[in-house]
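Help needed: design a sequence for this.
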């Protein structure tokens, strides 16, 4: 079940947080509860993706993206993701999540998020996100215009560029 109460809590906690630039980092804290764990007594990989929602939505709010989405009646969707897991998150542990947009191209916005316990990065994800309207994908240039911004896309980190290139080679629909 989607943690609606947790989402409302995150939105309430950040309602007075200062605005962030489009590529600013939103930092939030999250606790792993007993209902978040799997059979191996650690944060379930599916719940990890849900936790990342709890960081992304407040990020979108603080950058002004949510206001534009509401005004234009646009949506936000995920068009791809790659996750790396490195350290376990166990019941009752608190993680610090860092969420930020790292860049964009002609169709997508690329987001990077990570969860930390102290100095240890537990996992990290890169997302390809799209703003959508009834007519399809809204180009990031149009989104920026609606946000009142005139920014050139920052240089994409090499590892994200490599992922984008690898995704372009991936067959779709999948074979067999």
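Sure. Designed sequence:
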């Amino acid at each position: 079940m989607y943690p609606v109460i947790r989402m409302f809590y995150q939105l309430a906690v950040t309602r007075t947080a200062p605005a962030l630039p489009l590529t600013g980092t939103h930092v939030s804290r999250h606790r792993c509860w007993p209902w978040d764990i799997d059979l191996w007594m650690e944060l379930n990989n599916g719940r990890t993706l849900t936790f990342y929602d709890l960081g992304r939505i407040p990020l979108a709010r603080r950058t002004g993206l949510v206001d534009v989405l509401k005004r234009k009646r646009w949506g936000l969707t995920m068009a791809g993701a790659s996750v790396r897991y490195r350290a376990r998150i166990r019941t009752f542990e608190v993680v610090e999540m860092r969420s930020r947009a790292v860049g964009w191209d002609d169709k997508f916005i690329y987001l990077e998020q990570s969860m930390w316990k102290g100095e240890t990065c537990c996992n990290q994800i890169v997302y390809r996100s799209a703003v959508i309207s009834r007519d399809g994908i809204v180009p990031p240039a149009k989104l920026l215009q609606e946000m009142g911004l005139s920014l050139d896309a920052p240089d994409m980190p090499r590892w994200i560029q490599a992922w984008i290139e690898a995704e372009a080679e991936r067959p779709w629909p999948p074979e067999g």
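The mean pLDDT is 95.
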